[in-house]
Amino acid sequence: MTSTWIWLALTADRPAGATAAAPVRQAPTGEPAGWMAAWARRRRPLAGALRADARIVDRGGAPALVSLVLPPAGVRVPVDDLAVQQARREVLARPPADAVSLLLRDASHFEGAITVVRGRGGAEDPFARLFPSRVLEVGAGLFGRVAPPAGPVIERYGSANPWPWDRYPAV
């Protein structure tokens, strides 16, 4: 993927034109919960789509357990809010998840987080302390593994890009 971010959304049906998509089931019941899809394009593909770190998407990725944390409708929390920053610190202090990304609608507001785990029977999600977590079983073909960051990234850098801890433009 050429962009540093993708659009991510949970939809009722498999969306046409998605870069990657996988069926979703509610954990632990296994009830169908729709499709999760990613789009690598500039414009938002549908109203509920949120920006995520593009590195989390891998069309060859294995099935995964996903914690999806979304604030209630109308609640806007700055990315710089101390609670968001503390959740990011806690991500660094725990055994690494397969992938973690903040979810953004604009350049400066936390609109949620997604945590991807495999083979650990689930993991506690630090972002679930901010808002309730929805735990989902996501099928193969959507999420990959991303190396954990080397350390905390609290400073503000290009907030239109979600948590780009591993790259800064050449000056």
Secondary structure layout:
Blueprint: E1 5-11, E2 20-26, E3 31-39, E4 50-53, E5 64-69, E6 77-78, H1 82-93, E7 99-104, E8 109-117, E9 133-138
Antiparallel strand pairs: 1-3, 1-4, 2-3, 2-9, 5-8, 5-9, 6-8, 7-8
What kind of oligomer do you see?
A: single chain
- Average of the residue pLDDT scores: 86
Number of helices: 1
Biggest sheet architecture: 9 strands, antiparallel
Task: Please tell me about this protein's structure.
By secondary structure, this protein is mainly beta. The chain has one domain (5-138). Helices cover 7% and strands 33% of the residues. The protein contains one helix and nine strands, in the order E-E-E-E-E-E-H-E-E-E. It has one helix spanning 82-93, and strands spanning 5-11, 20-26, 31-39, 50-53, 64-69, 77-78, 99-104, 109-117, 133-138. Strands 1, 2, 3, 4, 5, 6, 7, 8 and 9 form a nine-stranded antiparallel beta sheet that branches. The longest helix has 12 residues, at 82-93. The radius of gyration is 15 Å and the shape is globular.
Question: Main attributes?
Answer:
mainly beta; nine-stranded antiparallel β-sheet; 1 helix; globular
Compact description:
The chain is mainly beta.
